[in-house]
Amino acid sequence: MSVELPLWRALTGYRILTLGYALALFVLAYRDYDHPLGAAAYMGVLTLWTALTWNRVTGPERCTRRFLAADLTVALTGILLTPAVDSAERIASGAATLPSIWAGGAVLGLAIKGGWRWAAVGSTLVAAANLVERGGPARDTVHNVLLVWVSSIAIGYIVEVARASERTLARALRIEAATRERERLARDIHDSVLQVLAMVQRRGTALGGEAAELGRLAGEQEIALRTLVTGGPRPAPHEQPGDGAARPVPPAPREGPRDLDALLAPYAGAGVTYSGPGTPVLLAAGAAAELAAAVGAALDNVRKHAGEGARAWILLEEEPDGVLVTVRDDGPGIPEGRLAAAEREGRLGAALSIRGRLRDLGGSAEWISVPGQGTEVELRLPHPAGGSADSGANGARGAGS
């Protein structure tokens, strides 16, 4: 909802309420007017105008410049007509003009539609009309004029600031959406193209000959692709590209809940031990697939950083408030600051394939590592608010370390 929509609704109510107030003042002072029929004629026009145009101030599209000019003209006409129908004694004593505070609605419409500059013009014209009607700068008239002038300009300025903030927020949301889509595509590339290029580069180097040249080209393309999808700095030339061996890809999501235990079980094999609760752990299809892919990315990091001979353990636990998957290895551990450095260098395993996936589900990822004692990655996916494991994880969030 637009930030200025409540202001338009308030203006609609203001015009109706102030019309009632102006009519009440007129009825109570009817016998005191010098020309009550002339005053009654204007009040009839004011009532009809308000009734026919009440929906013109419900939104900026219908509240045009022409309407605002006509609305202000009706207010100014009523103020300047007051000396012709009312007695000089009543005017001198500070009696209200024919439109009374209804005239403030015309100025507020200018403030909401055009900001403080339009408000300044409208309030200045109303102030001048009030001074002409009173015949001079009486104390109470000056007080009311200044009140309308300052308040309308302040409201106009607030509207301009609110609109600027709304535009800034809209731009930020568009940038965030584009960034999330970029990260999603980067994760998909990391899980497929980059893995294959890294494997070709390693195998080609190991085979030598023409295969080594093919491996070198694959490595260059991997570096270029990493730079493209991350928008970050190009890795140093002496560094070897690649994030790890290729790994199984979880089945594509489908409608309905998925059993996370069934998705994680295929990761078990030589060097990888999997332990589950023995009962289905049901999550929404998309959430289950993303969590399984994050586990696969964590195993890739084990193969790369801990070596092919390292052992890994996957533990799936269902907790009262969510699901916890722990991936632990017996490798050398991660030096302090290495994860942040890897993200800056364009290494996408931890930054996107793990942390990014769980963040998009509303959660986080945590790495616990002591040099020489291996690394433990915790991925936590809470159940939806008020839900359970059986209801899926549409509102879940992930945590990993």
Describe this structure in words.
The structure is a single chain. By secondary structure, this protein is α+β, with helices and mostly antiparallel strands. It folds into two domains: 5-167; 257-391, 2-Layer Sandwich (Heat Shock Protein 90). It has 13 helices and seven strands. The chain has helices spanning 5-28, 36-52, 65-85, 88-92, 103-114, 116-134, 139-191, 193-207, 210-230, 260-264, 285-306, 338-344, 348-360, and strands spanning 257-259, 272-275, 282-284, 312-319, 322-329, 365-369, 375-382. The strands form two sheets. Strands 2-4-5-7-6 form a five-stranded mixed sheet. The longest helix has 53 residues, at 139-191. The protein is elongated. The two termini are 38 Å apart. The model is unreliable at 232-253 and 386-401 (pLDDT under 50). Residues 385-394 have a biased composition (Low complexity). The chain crosses the membrane at residues 12-30, 36-55. Residues 231-258, 379-401 are annotated as: Disordered.
